[in-house]
Description:
Two copies of one chain form a homodimer. Chain A is α/β, with parallel strands linked by helices. Chain A has two domains: about 15-240, Aldehyde Dehydrogenase, Chain A, domain 1 (3-Layer(aba) Sandwich); about 250-395, Aldehyde Dehydrogenase, Chain A, domain 2, CATH 3.40.309.10. Chain A has helices at about 1-5, 15-45, 45-65, 65-80, 85-90, 95-110, 150-160, 175-190, 210-215, 230-240, 260-275, 295-305, 315-320, 345-355, 370-380, and strands at about 120-125, 130-135, 140-145, 165-170, 200, 220-225, 250-255, 280-290, 310, 325, 340-345, 360-365, 385-390, 405-410, 415, 425-435. In chain A, the strands form four sheets. A seven-stranded parallel beta sheet of chain A has the order 10-9-11-8-7-12-13, with helices on both faces. The first copy, chain A, has a four-stranded parallel beta sheet with strand order 5-4-3-6, with helices on both faces. In chain A, strands 1-2-16 form a three-stranded antiparallel beta sheet, with no helix packed on it. Chain A is globular and about 65 Å long. In chain A, about 50% of the residues are buried.
Amino acid sequence: xxxxxxxxxxxxxxxxxxxxxxxxxxxxxxxxxxxxxxxxxxxxxxxxxxxxxxxxxxxxxxxxxxxxxxxxxxxxxxxxxxxxxxxxxxxxxxxxxxxxxxxxxxxxxxxxxxxxxxxxxxxxxxxxxxxxxxxxxxxxxxxxxxxxxxxxxxxxxxxxxxxxxxxxxxxxxxxxxxxxxxxxxxxxxxxxxxxxxxxxxxxxxxxxxxxxxxxxxxxxxxxxxxxxxxxxxxxxxxxxxxxxxxxxxxxxxxxxxxxxxxxxxxxxxxxxxxxxxxxxxxxxxxxxxxxxxxxxxxxxxxxxxxxxxxxxxxxxxxxxxxxxxxxxxxxxxxxxxxxxxxxxxxxxxxxxxxxxxxxxxxxxxxxxxxxxxxxxxxxxxxxxxxxxxxxxxxxxxxxxxxxxxxxxxxxxxxxxxxxxxxxxxxxxxxxxxxxxxx
Amino acid sequence: xxxxxxxxxxxxxxxxxxxxxxxxxxxxxxxxxxxxxxxxxxxxxxxxxxxxxxxxxxxxxxxxxxxxxxxxxxxxxxxxxxxxxxxxxxxxxxxxxxxxxxxxxxxxxxxxxxxxxxxxxxxxxxxxxxxxxxxxxxxxxxxxxxxxxxxxxxxxxxxxxxxxxxxxxxxxxxxxxxxxxxxxxxxxxxxxxxxxxxxxxxxxxxxxxxxxxxxxxxxxxxxxxxxxxxxxxxxxxxxxxxxxxxxxxxxxxxxxxxxxxxxxxxxxxxxxxxxxxxxxxxxxxxxxxxxxxxxxxxxxxxxxxxxxxxxxxxxxxxxxxxxxxxxxxxxxxxxxxxxxxxxxxxxxxxxxxxxxxxxxxxxxxxxxxxxxxxxxxxxxxxxxxxxxxxxxxxxxxxxxxxxxxxxxxxxxxxxxxxxxxxxxxxxxxxxxxxxxxx
Lengths: 438, 438
C-alpha cells in the first residue's frame, strides 16, 4: 500500500525516516541489479569498445564544460555558505583547466594497454590437462568518495577500462558537479553502444545510501572508499563486502650515516614539502646519530620552506625553532607542513621505529651503504619501500601505471597503487580431453 | 586486583563468564603479539631453514605417532559419546596410514619451490627510478577449522613454507589430536632454531576464542576459515580482519549437443560420484536438449552407482527413478550422492542457469564444439572453468600447487586453490639515485 511507502504528514519522524530508508534501499538494490547485468555485458566488450567509450566521454566532458562549471558553481556556493575550509573548497572547485585535465585523464586511460584477457600463467599436468590463469574483471565496484568531483571521471573511467561496472557515491558537497560529469560519462557509454548502467551515480545525498551499498553483497563485489580516515573506518567497520582501503600514509624518511649529505637534504625537503597533503608525504624524519652533523642544514631547509618541526631532545638541542615532539606525533599523519624528527642509532633502530609507528604505506632510506639499504628494504613492512628517492613518488602515475584509484594499504593484493590492472582478478581455465580423476 | 580476574564462587554467572572472556581475550592478545614477533623473524628466515623445520616436523610426527593416536582415541571416545555422525567420526579418526600421510604432506611442502623473494615484475622509469614488485609473506594468518585434525599440520606447514606465522584454532572435537600434532610442529621449529611461536594453537575449546581472534586486527592479518557453511558465515559476518573464504561449491557439468557421448558419460559419473563430499563434486547436470538421447545411459550410470536423481519434467519422463527437483535443488550443494538434472536449450541457457544458481566455484562443459567451449569459458563467472574434464579436479594438488589450504571463492585474489604461493603478497621496491618529484 502506498501509505507504507509514503507516510502521511502526521506520521512520526521515525516512521518517515524508515520509509525514506526503505525507498533508498529499493533504489540501491535496483542499481545493484542493473550494474550486475551491465557488468556481464562489459566483461565481454572488446578493448576497442571500452576505449571508444572513454574517448567519447572525454569529448563529452569538453562539450559539457559550461554545464559542468555551472553545476560546480552551485556546489561552491552551498559549500561557502556552510563555511567549509579553504582546503576543502579548493578540492571542490573546478575551472577550465581542471575540466580539461579531467577530459585528458580519460584519454590517457584509453591509451593504456588492455588489462583483460592476459594469460598470467600457463602450465600442463602429467595427465594432459592444461591450466591457464587468465585476467578477468572483478564485476561490480562500489566507490564511495568525498569532495573531489573529478573522482567521478577517474574512478568511472578506470572501472570501465578494466571491464567493471561501477556504482559511484560522491560526497554531498560535490553532488551537482559529479552529476554533470556523470552525464558526460553516460554520453561516452552510449556513443560506444555500451549500457548506461555500466557507470551509475547514486542520485541522493542521503547518507543512508552508503549503508545500503555496504550491505549489497549480492550485487556489489568490491567497495573502494576514497576520502578521509573517518569515511574509510566507517566503511571498513560496516561493510559486508571486501574493501580496497587506503588508510593512513604515515611515511618516514631515514637518513643513514652513510648518506650523501646533498642528496639527503634534497630528498628530505622534497619528501616533506613538495605537497604536504598527499599520502606519500614524509611525516617523520629519522636521522642516524652518525649523520647528526647534517641535521642543522636539513632543519634549516625545512624551516625556511615554512615547515613546523617537532623533535626529540637531541634535535631540539640543535635548533631553537624545534618544538618538543609528543608520543602521539610519531603516530600522526600530519598531512600538513609539520614534521616530526627523531635521532636513532643506525638502520636497525630506524626499522624498529618504522615497523612500530608506520602505517605500512611508503618508507624510504637515504644511504650509500648497500648493506644498510638491503636490510631496510627487506625488513621494513610496507607496501612501498624506497632507496635514495623521495616518498612523494608513491603514486600510480609516477609508477607508470597511469591513473590510479588510490594506494591500497591492504595486505592482500591489490597492495600499493591501484590502477586499471589492479581492479581485475583471474580465473583458472582447465582444458582436457576427457580426463577423469582417479 | 585478583578479584576482578577471578571472581569468588558467589559471583554471578554473568560475572564469571565475563571474567572468563576477558581471560581468553588476554590470552589471544598475547598469542597475537608473539605471533607478530615470530612473523618478523620468519619473513627473514632463508628457505633452507623453513624447509628444515618442515622436514623435522615430518620426523617428529612419525616419532610421536603413538602419542598422536592415543590423543585421537580420547577425541574419538568423546565424539562417540556425543553421538556425532559417521561422516564426522570418519573425518576425526586417525590411524597409522593417516599419520604417515600427514608426515609425508610436510615433506611434500618442503620439496616445493620457495614462494618468497620472487621478483614478480620489474621496470624502469624515464627518470631513472627502477621499480620491482617482490613477493613477501602476508604476516600472521589465523586459521579456524573444524574436525579434521590433519588440518593442524597442513595449515601450519603451508604457513611456515610461505614465511607466515599462524594461530590455529581447531575444532573442539579434535582438540587432543590437534594438540599432539601441534607438539610435533613445534619440535620441527625448534630443530631449525625458529621461534616456537611461529605456529601456535589456541589452547582452549571455548568458542569465545574465535570471536577474540576475529577482533585482533592489529596482530592477525588474514583469517582463513575452513569448515562448514555455518562457520564460514559466522567468520565473514563477525571478522574485522580480511577473510580468505571458501563458500559453497555448487558446481555444474553441462553436456553440450556436440559432446562425445562416451566422454560425457565418464565425466558426469566421475564429476558426481568419485567423492560426493568434496567441494568440486558436480551438484547439477545440465543436458543440452540436442543430446537428450544420451541422458538415459548417463542416468543409468548414476543410479547404478547409488546416486539419487532429482530432475525436471523432461528428465523424469525418461526414467521413473528420477524424483521431481524443487526450485531449491538448483541452489543446493548436496555434498552427497544426490544430483539435480535439468534439460536446457544449448550453451547460452546453460551459462545463464550457472551464473544465476552457481556459486562461482567450478563449472565444466563437455563438448567437441570449440565455439561453444570458448563461449562457456568466457561467460561463466567462476574461479575455475573446465572443458572436457571432471569438476573433481578442482584441487590444489591436482593443479600441481602441492598442498592447499582450500579453494577461495573470494573475487579478489587469491581466488581458486590456495597453496603456499597464494598465502603471500608483494611489496614494491623503488631504487633511485637521489630523484626528487617535480
